[in-house]
Amino acid sequence: MNKQPRIRIADTAGFCFGVKRAVKLANEAPHKYPGQQISTLGPIIHNPQVVTQLSALGVKPTDLNHVPEPGVVIIRSHGITRELAQELKQRPDLTLIDATCPFVRRAQEIVAEMSSAGYQVIIIGEPDHPEVAGLISYGDPQNTQVVTSLADIPADFFTERKSSRIALLAQTTQSQQLYNEIASALLAVKGELRCFNTICTATSNRQSEAIQLAEACDCMLIIGGRNSANTNRLYELSKERLPDSYHIETLADLHPEWFSGKQAIGISAGASTPQWLIDEVVEQLQYILKN
Amino acid sequence: MNKQPRIRIADTAGFCFGVKRAVKLANEAPHKYPGQQISTLGPIIHNPQVVTQLSALGVKPTDLNHVPEPGVVIIRSHGITRELAQELKQRPDLTLIDATCPFVRRAQEIVAEMSSAGYQVIIIGEPDHPEVAGLISYGDPQNTQVVTSLADIPADFFTERKSSRIALLAQTTQSQQLYNEIASALLAVKGELRCFNTICTATSNRQSEAIQLAEACDCMLIIGGRNSANTNRLYELSKERLPDSYHIETLADLHPEWFSGKQAIGISAGASTPQWLIDEVVEQLQYILKN
Questions:
Q1: What's the Rg (C-alpha) of chain B?
Q2: Which end of chain B is more exposed for a tag (fewer CB within 10 A), N or C?
Q3: Is domain A17-100 in CATH 3.40.50.11270, yes or no?
Q4: Residue B156 pLDDT > 80, yes or no?
Q5: Is this prediction's ipTM beyond 0.85?
Q6: pLDDT for A223-272, tens place per residue?
Q7: Which residues of A touch B176 (CB under 8 A)?
Q8: Which burial class, exposed, middle or buried, applies to A223 when counting CB atoms under 10 A from its CB (0-12, 13-18, 19+)?
Q9: A189 touches B: beta carbon within 8 Å
């Protein structure tokens, strides 16, 4: 008789700290503000199942021009611009729940402090991303800029200037490699270079742990949307190390024959995969393995 | 008839800004404080001819235990420790002339500010060098350290710690390459890395200009002591590009046949070569070329 295989769930599977916190705040809001209209400024997360579930509780995505007043509005984990935050605070009939990720909030504070202290502030990030739109709004346009690559750094940064002071930070989801590349180049600048490593390690930690699991198990499940870039990347990293790796969206995708004769089944999930979806898969897997 | 060759003297030949300033202050001291005993804490520069010349004016090197009082004492360009500066200031019969290089002074201030602000201060430098002894004295021993290479950085800097704040600077004569190497490695540390590029560009600028001259002239003279490491390096860089490069110590080393048929004669000099020695060589060279 075969011994039942062990199930190993990655600690880093699914939501990062900031998203987990935002979804928790959204779920708690109807209990905290009963009878009030509650909305989120845009979908709280790019996962339709989570948005549908919250809508059923009365927490609905909206846009700035349609915020129900009186009511409660939730700011998403990647934050908003300083101007918008000020505007919302001034509306007398609106209660704000700030679910801005604390790591993003810290980056906003760095931009504000460094810009007002007269540093040339460089933010590595995607100019169109809401997090970056929020970050740059905290700086003076005269000394704050977003760059996507080394080529975006103005050439005059590298000509010798007296007492140049540069502050460097990054959108929390940028790659450490790009950050290092730009920071290293800026070391050539005379004066002071103040590097704030604001990159969140959630993604890289999730990938590292998935790799470790794939190397330690003989079957691997990666849970997440087929259109989720970070889930696909997790699956690729696992598949490279363990051919018996499977990308599934829900428990319906599980095939009992995958687990025949296996010793250890590893599980990880993309950044937008909610915990309850992971839990459902684990429960179904336990049922399959017992039968 | 041959046209007389052009003489091109490097702007960066000889003393750097800080040494030039210190020697000037030492030369002015006997006029500013007539009749007083004037000493320098150690030789003002590692050039016996300059020290001898100053001694003749009454400015003599001494050590801490033999400073004549009442009198005037000159602090050399690479500075002294905070404790020693405080002690000297407290002596009622002593007048201090602070010839600390302003770039070194700035580095001392950075160590003091960063250490008292709670940063982990890392100074790249030679632990036994007087400039470095001065620099480290401005920091709290609990959070200030000198490293000579990446291997000296404590391993626990690279383990994830909350809100680590590191300030990095270098002895003014360190190589940019080593600074970049250590700074790049520290970028992996979570938190804030504050890089102060305190490296003086005098040496690298002097080398770059010597190379440019060697490539533009058909004869090159490098003036400086045979035992001066930086002079020898200048000579090597020139010789690699122009075989008709000559290393001389004084005007006595000039050979008229070197200049026969030349169009342009370039001149540079090591960091400890005084201006009057360069002037003497140029004058003698002009005499040779005319005859």
A1: 22
A2: N
A3: yes
A4: no
A5: no
A6: 998 877 788 889 999 999 999 999 999 999 999 999 999 999 999 999 88
A7: 188
A8: buried
A9: yes
